[in-house]
Amino acid sequence: MIARLLRHLAQAFALFGAAVALGVAALTVVSVVLRALTTQPIQGDVELAQFGIALAISMAVPWCQLRGANIIVDFFTQRLPAASIRRLDGVGALLIAAMFALLGWRTGVGAFAVHAAGETSMIRGLPMWWVYAMLAPGLALAAWIAALQGWLQLRGRSLDALRGGVPA
User: Fold this and answer.
1) Who contacts 8 (Cβ-Cβ below 8 Å, separation ≥6)?
2) How far separated are the first and last CA of the chain, in Å rounded?
3) Positions in the chain short of pLDDT 50
4) Which pLDDT does position 168 carry in this prediction?
5) What is the per-residue pLDDT for 69?
6) Are the CB atoms for 143 and 61 separated by under 8 Å?
7) DSSP secondary structure string, the chain?
8) Cβ contacts of residue 91 below 8 Å, gap of 6+?
9) CA-to-CA distance for 142 and 157, rounded, in angstroms?
10) Confidence at residue 60, expressed as pLDDT on a 0 to 100 scale
């Protein structure tokens, strides 16, 4: 039940992130065309692209974690028995869960600090706190997924249920 919920949330986050990335691409194309035709690009296009891509990446991180799409260096472990590799992967998943949780927490705290300071973007004058606040949910979801992966692996259970029955 929880595995299905996390999988569906990760997929929804990834689709939202993809839509944001497509929006950034469209914004960039329009800005470049306007610059070529009228010498007036969209004001603040670079900062909007930075905000959008940061959001897109944070929304994609849970899906990448769920699918095991991160880089694994197995040079030293490739000859170990499968059970040992699974335990090491479980510990690694718990460590990355802690890292994602820490990043999500500090990003949330940063959002409150930036809001209190009234910080805005340089060109468009957009409030910066919402950019930080939008990054935290993706990091938090990635932490939950990684924690469940670590727990499953340390218990010797398959991750296929979490991945929707599809092996990585």
Assistant:
1) none
2) 20
3) none
4) 56
5) 84
6) no
7) -HHHHHHHHHHHHHHHHHHHHHHHHHHHHHHHHHHHHHS---TTHHHHHHHHHHHHHHHHHHHHHHHT-S----TTTTTS-HHHHHHHHHHHHHHHHHHHHHHHHHHHHHHHHHHHHT-B-TTT--BSHHHHHHHHHHHHHHHHHHHHHHHHHHTT--STTTTTS---
8) 150, 154
9) 19
10) 97
Residue-wise pLDDT tens digits, 27-71: 999 999 999 999 899 999 999 999 999 999 999 999 999 998 877
pLDDT at 158: 80
Q: For position 152, what pLDDT does the model report?
A: 93
* Amino acid residing at 64: C
Owner of token pair 């030293």: 76
Which amino acid is it at 19? A
Radius of gyration of the chain from its Cα atoms, rounded to whole angstroms: 19
Compute how many other C-beta atoms are within 10 angstroms of the C-beta atom of residue 162. Answer: 20
Q: Where do we find the tokens 């999988």?
A: 7
Quick check: 138 and 61 in contact, CB under 8 A?
yes
For residues 132 and 111, the answer to whether their CB atoms sit within 8 Å is yes
Task: Please report the pLDDT score of residue 137 as a whole number.
Answer: 96
Both tokens assigned to 36? 């070529």
Output the six-digit token pair for 87: 């335990």
